[in-house]
Amino acid sequence: MVTVNLGMLHYILDHVYGAFVHRTKITPPFFSRGWGGTKLELLERLISQLFPEVEGQNWPPSLIQPIWKTVWETQNACLREGVFRTPCDDQLLSALPPESHNARVAFLVPKSVPPRKMACVVHLAGTGDHTFERRLRLGGPLLKQNIATMVLESPFYGQRRPMLQRGAKLLCVSDLLLLGRATIEEARSLLYWLDSEAGFGKMGVCGLSMGGVHAAMVGSLHPTPVATLPFLSPHSAVVAFCEGILKHATAWEALREDLAAKEAAMTLEEVRERMRNVLSLTDVTRFPIPKNPNAIIFVAATDDGYIPKHSVLELQKAWPGSEVRWVTGGHVSSFLLHNDEFRKAIVDGLNRLEWKEPSL
């Protein structure tokens, strides 16, 4: 009986937090400026092209050349920050706000062993994660196990946030697709850099919530096996914005007015259906199974007010060989209390990969 009440408490905590953050007028809702017009049509087309025609066929990542500066260095570790031009093609670049054209990363590396005997994990941002600090805290204790951490600042976040955007509240639906598409491109290029330039022996990609959706997509589309580690993540953005708590943070009326101006008057339910159709492009179950399914570990919460259980199980079903681990809690409490479980999943996922053969 106590367990049930505790589970309900975690679920209620998610809703109380969600009501405070998303239903009060402290910040504007998501998508207050509508759908994004022609940008949305462009993104729908570009994301449809992500799905390879032939199983196992992936386009090669672009090579990037980050410019590094050292933030601090000790006997055992070094933290550097890097800047690189986003590797997105001209069409994507023209849709991205100018503030997002340059990508920023933090790179925390142990100094005790050469890269070929180390692993590195790229950490992608969850909704509202504008800085490097939280993800560096997650990765920091892994230095002792010779696991480096690379943290990517998302487009539309932190120093890459457009001037008119407040907090994480993206202005248009097209911005959500654009953020995802650019993050996939940048993360694949970082993995390629870690492999070909830095010479790491193993690599992985992880993320919390929205970052976990992007991590799953990157793991799916990367041409070589990487550990794929989505934490507290749905199988699609449809779940977050149409089923979970974020549906209360969405400017449905503004979206309806935007459609009415261009097409025809719609009921709110029809607007929600349109949103489901658009966001179905983010459905990870449509993506190819990653190269090493055994190195996919999902960590999900038992009483998550943002991500229903069925969403996690759909991912596991779509990717046979993957593993789901459950932590007791809600979205917010697990985010705060279960970092050790996330770290264990990172270590275990990397252990299921083969070390890269040294090049002659």
Automatic annotation (TrEMBL):
InterPro entries reported for this sequence: AB_hydrolase_fold (IPR029058), ABHD18 (IPR019149)
Xref: SUPFAM superfamilies: alpha/beta-Hydrolases
One Pfam family this sequence matches: ABHD18
Domain of life: Eukaryota
Name of the protein in question: Protein ABHD18
Species of the source: Hibiscus sabdariffa
Higher taxonomy: Eukaryota, Viridiplantae, Streptophyta, Embryophyta, Tracheophyta
